[in-house]
Amino acid sequence: MESKLITGGKDIVTHTSEQVETLRQKRRLIAEAERRQREVQQRLAEGEEERQTINAKYTNVKEEVEDKRAKRDKLSKHLKKIEAKRTEIFEHQPSAREELEAEQREIQKQTKLLQLAIENFIPEDERERLYKRIQFDDHQNQWTLKELSKET
Coiled coil located at which positions (predicted)? Predict the structure, then answer.
Protein backbone atom coordinates (compact mmCIF):
# COMPACT_ATOMS: atom_id res chain seq x y z
CA MET A 1 0.00 0.00 0.00
CA GLU A 2 2.85 2.37 0.82
CA SER A 3 4.33 1.72 -2.59
CA LYS A 4 1.07 2.73 -4.23
CA LEU A 5 1.02 5.94 -2.21
CA ILE A 6 4.64 6.73 -3.00
CA THR A 7 4.54 5.90 -6.72
CA GLY A 8 1.22 7.64 -7.28
CA GLY A 9 -0.82 4.51 -8.00
CA LYS A 10 -4.51 4.33 -7.23
CA ASP A 11 -4.75 4.47 -3.46
CA ILE A 12 -7.64 4.21 -1.04
CA VAL A 13 -8.29 7.95 -0.93
CA THR A 14 -8.51 8.19 -4.72
CA HIS A 15 -10.72 5.14 -4.94
CA THR A 16 -13.00 6.43 -2.19
CA SER A 17 -13.32 9.86 -3.78
CA GLU A 18 -14.19 8.23 -7.11
CA GLN A 19 -16.89 6.17 -5.41
CA VAL A 20 -18.25 9.25 -3.62
CA GLU A 21 -18.47 11.14 -6.92
CA THR A 22 -20.21 8.19 -8.60
CA LEU A 23 -22.65 8.00 -5.70
CA ARG A 24 -23.39 11.74 -5.97
CA GLN A 25 -24.09 11.41 -9.68
CA LYS A 26 -26.45 8.48 -9.12
CA ARG A 27 -28.27 10.37 -6.37
CA ARG A 28 -28.70 13.33 -8.72
CA LEU A 29 -30.12 11.04 -11.39
CA ILE A 30 -32.53 9.44 -8.92
CA ALA A 31 -33.67 12.85 -7.65
CA GLU A 32 -34.24 14.03 -11.23
CA ALA A 33 -36.26 10.90 -12.05
CA GLU A 34 -38.37 11.38 -8.91
CA ARG A 35 -38.97 15.03 -9.79
CA ARG A 36 -40.11 14.09 -13.30
CA GLN A 37 -42.39 11.40 -11.88
CA ARG A 38 -43.99 13.94 -9.51
CA GLU A 39 -44.52 16.34 -12.42
CA VAL A 40 -46.20 13.63 -14.47
CA GLN A 41 -48.44 12.66 -11.54
CA GLN A 42 -49.36 16.30 -11.00
CA ARG A 43 -50.22 16.74 -14.68
CA LEU A 44 -52.35 13.60 -14.59
CA ALA A 45 -54.20 14.82 -11.52
CA GLU A 46 -54.80 18.22 -13.11
CA GLY A 47 -56.05 16.58 -16.30
CA GLU A 48 -58.42 14.34 -14.35
CA GLU A 49 -59.76 17.32 -12.40
CA GLU A 50 -60.27 19.26 -15.64
CA ARG A 51 -62.08 16.31 -17.20
CA GLN A 52 -64.38 16.04 -14.20
CA THR A 53 -65.13 19.76 -14.36
CA ILE A 54 -66.03 19.55 -18.02
CA ASN A 55 -68.23 16.48 -17.53
CA ALA A 56 -69.95 17.78 -14.40
CA LYS A 57 -73.70 18.11 -14.83
CA TYR A 58 -75.49 20.09 -12.19
CA THR A 59 -79.14 19.54 -11.35
CA ASN A 60 -79.59 23.04 -9.99
CA VAL A 61 -77.72 26.30 -9.56
CA LYS A 62 -77.16 25.71 -5.84
CA GLU A 63 -75.09 22.56 -6.53
CA GLU A 64 -73.02 24.41 -9.09
CA VAL A 65 -72.37 27.30 -6.68
CA GLU A 66 -71.31 24.91 -3.90
CA ASP A 67 -68.99 23.01 -6.24
CA LYS A 68 -67.42 26.19 -7.57
CA ARG A 69 -67.01 27.53 -4.01
CA ALA A 70 -65.25 24.31 -2.94
CA LYS A 71 -62.90 24.55 -5.92
CA ARG A 72 -62.22 28.21 -5.16
CA ASP A 73 -61.37 27.34 -1.54
CA LYS A 74 -59.07 24.55 -2.71
CA LEU A 75 -57.27 26.87 -5.11
CA SER A 76 -57.07 29.57 -2.44
CA LYS A 77 -55.32 27.15 -0.06
CA HIS A 78 -52.95 26.14 -2.84
CA LEU A 79 -52.16 29.80 -3.57
CA LYS A 80 -51.43 30.45 0.13
CA LYS A 81 -49.03 27.49 0.22
CA ILE A 82 -47.20 28.78 -2.84
CA GLU A 83 -46.99 32.30 -1.42
CA ALA A 84 -45.64 30.90 1.86
CA LYS A 85 -42.95 28.96 -0.04
CA ARG A 86 -42.06 32.08 -2.00
CA THR A 87 -41.77 34.14 1.18
CA GLU A 88 -39.62 31.45 2.78
CA ILE A 89 -37.31 31.40 -0.24
CA PHE A 90 -36.99 35.19 -0.22
CA GLU A 91 -36.19 35.13 3.51
CA HIS A 92 -33.67 32.31 3.17
CA GLN A 93 -31.83 33.64 0.10
CA PRO A 94 -29.94 36.53 1.80
CA SER A 95 -28.72 34.34 4.66
CA ALA A 96 -27.62 31.61 2.25
CA ARG A 97 -25.76 34.21 0.20
CA GLU A 98 -24.04 35.57 3.31
CA GLU A 99 -22.99 32.05 4.29
CA LEU A 100 -21.52 31.44 0.85
CA GLU A 101 -19.68 34.76 0.93
CA ALA A 102 -18.28 33.96 4.38
CA GLU A 103 -17.16 30.55 3.14
CA GLN A 104 -15.51 32.16 0.12
CA ARG A 105 -13.65 34.65 2.36
CA GLU A 106 -12.47 31.80 4.58
CA ILE A 107 -11.20 29.84 1.56
CA GLN A 108 -9.38 32.91 0.26
CA LYS A 109 -7.82 33.44 3.68
CA GLN A 110 -6.61 29.82 3.81
CA THR A 111 -5.28 30.08 0.25
CA LYS A 112 -3.26 33.20 1.11
CA LEU A 113 -1.87 31.51 4.22
CA LEU A 114 -0.81 28.42 2.26
CA GLN A 115 0.68 30.59 -0.49
CA LEU A 116 2.75 32.46 2.11
CA ALA A 117 3.95 29.18 3.60
CA ILE A 118 4.93 27.89 0.17
CA GLU A 119 6.76 31.08 -0.78
CA ASN A 120 8.64 31.39 2.53
CA PHE A 121 9.43 27.80 3.50
CA ILE A 122 9.91 25.83 0.27
CA PRO A 123 13.08 26.52 -1.72
CA GLU A 124 12.49 28.11 -5.10
CA ASP A 125 13.93 25.24 -7.17
CA GLU A 126 11.80 22.68 -5.30
CA ARG A 127 8.77 24.93 -5.67
CA GLU A 128 9.29 25.10 -9.45
CA ARG A 129 9.52 21.30 -9.65
CA LEU A 130 6.28 20.99 -7.69
CA TYR A 131 4.53 23.53 -9.94
CA LYS A 132 5.54 21.47 -12.98
CA ARG A 133 4.13 18.27 -11.43
CA ILE A 134 0.85 19.65 -10.12
CA GLN A 135 -2.37 19.25 -12.12
CA PHE A 136 -6.07 19.71 -11.44
CA ASP A 137 -8.36 16.68 -11.74
CA ASP A 138 -11.82 17.84 -12.84
CA HIS A 139 -13.48 14.53 -12.02
CA GLN A 140 -12.31 14.51 -8.41
CA ASN A 141 -12.34 18.30 -8.15
CA GLN A 142 -8.92 18.41 -6.50
CA TRP A 143 -5.25 19.02 -7.21
CA THR A 144 -2.94 16.04 -7.69
CA LEU A 145 0.78 15.51 -8.25
CA LYS A 146 1.98 13.69 -11.35
CA GLU A 147 4.39 10.83 -10.86
CA LEU A 148 8.06 11.63 -10.58
CA SER A 149 10.01 11.42 -13.80
CA LYS A 150 13.60 12.12 -14.80
CA GLU A 151 12.68 15.59 -16.10
CA THR A 152 11.14 16.75 -12.82
Answer: 23-120
